[in-house]
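DM from R.C. (forwarded with permission)

"hey, sorry to bug you on a friday — could you get me a structure for this? deadline for the figure draft is monday and I only need the backbone to look sensible"
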Amino acid sequence: MLENLAKRKKSEPVCLLKERVVGSAGENQFLLGGGVIAKRAFSCLVMPEIGDEVLCTADGTERLILAILFRHSKSECAISPLGNSEINVTAKVFSVSALKRIEFRSFGDFQVDVPLGRLVMNVEDLFQTARKNFVQLGEQLLTKAKNWHIRAEGTLVSDSDNHIITAKRDIRIDAERINMG
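My reply, with the result:
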């Protein structure tokens, strides 16, 4: 379409139209109420659905959906860039809020980098699962809990230059064999 616009004489108009999506005509192509097929523009990140009222541009050769003006259904809003391209957001502050739940899914890696700041989680319950390795590295690792239960099905190794175990009341060591020294 941009090539068509570049070749166009200055007197030829480009029209903006309000249309309704009535069907799908292939990947990123939609049948509009006027019986024509429109492609989704690169800048239209929200995937159109049947019944959506959309803003289109028409230049006589093709139509592009520029934006979704109104959605009659209560379905989800799917943000989907053309060609599975990446989405990068750069801002001084980036905030995501949800009234019910936030989900992140990746079939590959998921990385969070905060090299000069803190990563703070404030939750009621925290569950972490690793199918293989779970590694924690840091200069200091502090844990405070009312009760702390560690269970290893294999071997539990605790190793340090200085090891301090204190209890206000009881220390119980129970095994078939205990080696000290």
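R.C.: lifesaver. The chain has one helix and five strands.
me: no worries. The mean pLDDT is 88.
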